[in-house]
């Protein structure tokens, strides 16, 4: 009897552990499933963000006809959206201090969905300008939150691949949005202009994705509180998640985070190159209009832009993966080398595309190959260097803020590129909107627009390449400082 009792007591602890072990396994499985669902929906949000971003440039020609607007007027629409987006981006950093990122992402998505639908109903150019500004506000909230979400979801060694995957999937959405709008633009549906129907369709899909994000996405910081073996970095980040913080504490935390981010020299240099390096990408919104002026129809123009977008999508993923591998060998300079290579490649490709290839519909194949290879090589910077390096030079709780201020500076300053292309084309190179044939386009106007584009692409690409050079000396120090701060925070929590 005594022996049986001893045996029972010896077995009891192991039996009591079984439910605990099963519970732990269930929790881990649930976490993995939750992470997968969250990342899928986050990538869907990125798809809709890129699709919305490419929507208006894809129908510039039709919008120009509907509102009697020239290239400079269309450039101002892009300027207004980007400028408001830049000024509003720090708001995302402040909101993250007090709210779940899925809530912030859903808010921004609903905002841009509303503004996109409103553009479809506009009958005056100033109305379009107003709603494009609201669209910029929605994007300002979404993009930094998306980037910090990805930064928290991947470790240092594979973060470039994570950002590359986000860019790859997002660019696929941009392809879909651009192709859809360009193909629909030349038709009518139920007596309504096709480009307006495209805007309504995109707004509906965006609102649906926003609802799914709100309902099913779980913030990585919140997941870290339910799983005991979560990463140390996410545990430290939990300290900033305050569901009931006062307005005064939010402002104080925001101001402290702002000062901490702005004084990081790596941030300053990447923002400087970003301001310059974003100019060519902002100018590229005129590509669709340029191809249509050459004489390509809507479907051909959509195909050419799709090839460029596919190249960019593949390039961003490839660049992020290459940078991850190179950073294992050259931890302090591998990402910088990749970024400089990518920026430099923009110079010969811009010159060849806009200056060397004959501007004729017979050059379709040459345009196709050039655009694909161009996209494949000039799209590395964000995923290979900028976004992963930002995540390594500030504490975890400042990540959204650093992405927000990057968008603030880059977006507000680079937004001048689009109207500058229009002004250069019209005032310097002789573009005349009245000479454009709605069907056949206009060769002289295409040439004038290409000269304006080249001015805003080749030179900024070269300057962007040079701007990365100081990071060879500064990045290592800033990363070590950030790790030291994180280590001290961890010691204080123990």
Automatic annotation (TrEMBL):
Family: Belongs to the major facilitator superfamily. Spinster (TC 2.A.1.49) family.
Subcellular localization, as worded in the UniProt entry: Membrane
Pfam families with a match to the protein in the record: MFS_1 (PF07690)
Transport among keywords: yes
GO cellular component: membrane
Keywords for this protein: Membrane, Transmembrane, Transmembrane helix, Transport
Organism: Arachis hypogaea
Protein known as: Major facilitator superfamily (MFS) profile domain-containing protein
Protein topology in the membrane: Multi-pass membrane protein
Lineage start: Eukaryota, Viridiplantae, Streptophyta, Embryophyta, Tracheophyta
InterPro entries per the UniProt record, alphabetical: MFS, MFS_dom, MFS_spinster-like, MFS_trans_sf
GO MF, any single term: transmembrane transporter activity
Transmembrane intervals: 30-48, 103-122, 129-150, 162-185, 197-218, 269-291, 303-322, 334-354, 361-380, 453-475
Keyword Nucleotide-binding: no
Superkingdom to which the source organism belongs: Eukaryota
Ranges where the Major facilitator superfamily (MFS) profile domain occurs: 38-480
């Amino acid at each position: 009897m005594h022996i049986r009792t001893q045996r029972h007591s010896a077995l009891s602890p192991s039996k009591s552990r079984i439910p605990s072990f099963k519970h732990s396994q269930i929790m881990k499985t649930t976490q993995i499933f939750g992470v997968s669902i969250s990342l899928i929906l986050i990538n869907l949000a990125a798809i809709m963000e890129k699709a919305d971003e490419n929507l208006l440039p894809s129908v510039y020609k039709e919008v120009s006809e509907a509102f009697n607007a020239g290239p400079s007027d269309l450039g101002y629409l892009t300027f207004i959206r980007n400028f408001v987006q830049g000024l509003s981006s720090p708001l995302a950093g402040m909101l993250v201090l007090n709210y779940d990122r899925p809530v912030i992402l859903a808010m921004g998505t609903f905002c841009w969905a509303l503004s996109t639908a409103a553009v479809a109903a506009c009958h005056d150019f100033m109305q379009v300008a107003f709603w494009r500004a609201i669209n910029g506000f929605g994007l300002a909230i979404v993009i930094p939150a998306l980037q910090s979400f990805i930064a928290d979801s991947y470790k240092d060694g594979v973060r470039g691949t994570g950002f590359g995957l986000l860019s790859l999937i997002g660019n696929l959405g941009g392809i879909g949005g651009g192709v859809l709008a360009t193909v629909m633009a030349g038709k009518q549906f139920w007596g309504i202009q096709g480009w307006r129907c495209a805007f309504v369709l995109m707004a509906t899909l965006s609102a649906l994705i926003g609802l799914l994000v709100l309902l099913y996405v779980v913030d990585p910081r919140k997941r870290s509180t339910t799983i005991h073996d979560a990463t140390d970095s996410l545990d430290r980040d939990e300290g900033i998640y305050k569901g009931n913080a006062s307005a005064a504490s939010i402002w104080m935390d925001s101001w402290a985070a702002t000062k901490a981010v702005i004084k990081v020299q790596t941030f300053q240099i990447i923002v400087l190159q970003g301001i310059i390096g974003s100019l060519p990408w902002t100018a590229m919104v005129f590509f669709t209009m340029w191809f249509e002026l050459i004489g390509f129809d809507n479907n051909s123009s959509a195909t050419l832009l799709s090839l460029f977008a596919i190249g960019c999508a593949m390039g961003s993923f490839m660049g992020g993966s290459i940078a991850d591998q190179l950073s294992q060998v050259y931890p302090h300079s591998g990402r910088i080398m990749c970024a400089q290579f990518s920026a430099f490649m923009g110079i010969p490709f811009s010159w060849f595309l806009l200056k060397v290839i004959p501007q004729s519909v017979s050059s379709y194949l040459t345009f196709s190959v050039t655009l694909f290879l161009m996209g494949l090589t000039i799209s590395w910077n964000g995923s290979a260097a900028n976004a992963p390096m930002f995540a390594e030079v500030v504490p975890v709780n400042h990540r959204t803020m650093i992405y927000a201020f990057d968008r603030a500076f880059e977006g507000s300053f680079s937004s001048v590129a689009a109207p500058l292309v229009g002004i250069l084309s019209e005032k310097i190179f002789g573009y005349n909107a009245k000479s454009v044939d709605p069907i056949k386009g206009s060769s002289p106007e295409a040439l004038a627009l290409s000269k304006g584009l080249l001015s805003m692409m080749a030179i900024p690409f070269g300057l962007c390449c040079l701007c990365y050079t100081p990071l060879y000396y500064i990045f290592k120090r800033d990363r070590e400082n950030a790790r030291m701060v994180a280590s001290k925070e961890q010691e204080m929590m123990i």
